[in-house]
Amino acid sequence: MKIFVSSNWQNILSLSIGIMLMLTVSDSYASDKKLANIYTYKSSSGVISFSDIEPLDVDFSRYRFDCYACKVDSLIDWRRAKLYLHPYRDDINQAALMYGIDPAFVRAVIHAESHFNPQAVSKQGAQGLMQLMPATAKELGVKNSLSAEQNIKGGVKHLARLLRKYKGDNELASAAYNAGEGAVKRHGGIPPYKETQVYVERVGILHQRYGRFSHLNK
Fold first, then answer.
1. pLDDT at 151
2. How far is Cα 90 from Cα 68, in angstroms, rounded to an integer?
3. A Gene Ontology molecular-function term (predicted)?
4. What three-state secondary structure class fits 75?
5. Residue 217 Cα to chain centre, angstroms
6. Higher confidence at residue 53 or residue 164?
């Protein structure tokens, strides 16, 4: 499915049509338990296009509709899934060193949040590798959440604050990162949301696995 919008039309119209397409594709994929993607790109003639098929030979942005590790009925074997040991190594290590947290934990959160897709945008509006919400990004001083360097630095700063707040408890920090600090406070711990519970579990598994290879990422 493709929709084309002339660059002469107002941006609001193009955005509206894009959102309609995103929602349509998201609903159809949800029924099949598949991952939905929407691609947006601009042709050489200036036409803005939205498609559920990956474009060829043009620069494009990809939008996702889910938190990668939040799918309750995921069939992924998280103890055997492919790890991403090298992407963004320097940015992750530098940010982790700056804020005093384990880079393996950062890598686990990135894997869980976006599967290392720097252009990921959720239906709630979270953006980039560490899926920062616009308000959170602004608070963290991140001007462009789709910049891998800025996103990682801001996300790690946020994670470090959560770890300080929860006295180094990775599970509570993960829960707050996913469901919000208010939910953790209301429930006195990990909220009883299936999505959050599986997220915390999977981040823990990924953290342990990435930690085994920490010597390769220095």
1. 98
2. 23
3. peptidoglycan lytic transglycosylase activity
4. coil
5. 21
6. 164
Cα dihedral: 184, 134, 15, 47 (round 10) = -130
Per DSSP, the chain holds a count of helices (H) and strands (E) of 8, 4
113 is catalytic: yes
Q: 35-39, 42-46, 117-121, 199-203 — which one is most confidently predicted on average?
A: 199-203
Give Cα 183 distance to the centre of its chain. Answer: 20
Q: Which of 113, 181, 195, 201 is catalytic?
A: 113
Cβ(119)–Cβ(62) under 8 Å?
yes
d(CA 159, CA 176) in angstroms, rounded, equals 9
State if pTM tops 0.90: no
C-alpha 68/C-alpha 114 separation (Å) is: 6
Q: pLDDT digits over 44-53, tens only?
A: 666 656 555 5
Complete DSSP assignment for 23-72 = HHHHHHHHHTT---EEEEEE-TT--EEEESS--SSS--EEEE-S-TT--T
Residue that has been written with the tokens 């036409």 in this structure: 47
The distance between the two most distant Cα atoms of the chain, rounded to a whole number of Å, is: 55
pLDDT of residue 4 exceeding 50, the answer is no
> Which of 191 and 38 is assigned the larger pLDDT?
191
Measuring CA to CA, which residue among 12, 31, 206 is closest to residue 114?
Answer: 206
| Separation between Cα atoms, residue 169 and residue 147, nearest integer Å | 28
